[in-house]
Amino acid sequence: MQVTATLRNARISPQKCRLVADAVRGVPVGRALQTLSFMPKKGARIVKKVLEAAVANAEHNHGADIDELKIARIMIDEAPTLKRFHARAKGRGNRITKRNSHITVQVADE
User: Fold this and answer.
1) Residue numbers of the domain that contains 80
2) In which band, very low, low, confident or very high, does the pLDDT at 110 lie, cut at 50, 70 and 90?
3) In a designed cystine with 58, which of 3, 17, 97, 101 is the match (CB 3.0 to 4.6 A)?
4) How many CA atoms are closer than 13 Å to the CA of 47, on its beta-carbon side?
């Protein structure tokens, strides 16, 4: 049984969020939550909330035992980018790209 939780348009770049996702990919849920709790990155807080949502979905919708769950798949995909301009000298402007992510966490029984 595989259960999924998704967060769309998270305001963090996929490159930064993938660093966090790689640290918890394939590990049991309990250990992943502990790891994310003590990781000093913004992406850790966001991924932890999505992981908790996936665990709650598994427990509520399928009656799964939390101790037997592990992260089967975690994907950080690129979402639409916000494009902004920053004023520069002599009437010019530089583009600022504010990148967003789609975060998908899938948990499954071992």
Assistant:
1) 2-109
2) confident
3) 3
4) 36
Angle at 59 between CA 61 and CA 57, to 5 degrees: 60
34: left (phi > 0), else alpha (psi -120 to 50), else beta? alpha
Count CA atoms closer than 13 A to 36's CA, side-chain side. 26
User: Quick one: tokens of 57?
Assistant: 């979905």
CATH for 13:
3.90.470.10
What global pTM score does this model have?
0.91
Taking CA atoms, 21 is separated from 1, 25, 60, 72, in Å, by: 21, 6, 24, 12
Question: Which tokens is 9 given?
Answer: 């348009």
How many domains, in total, are found in the chain? 1
The one-letter amino acid at 110 = E
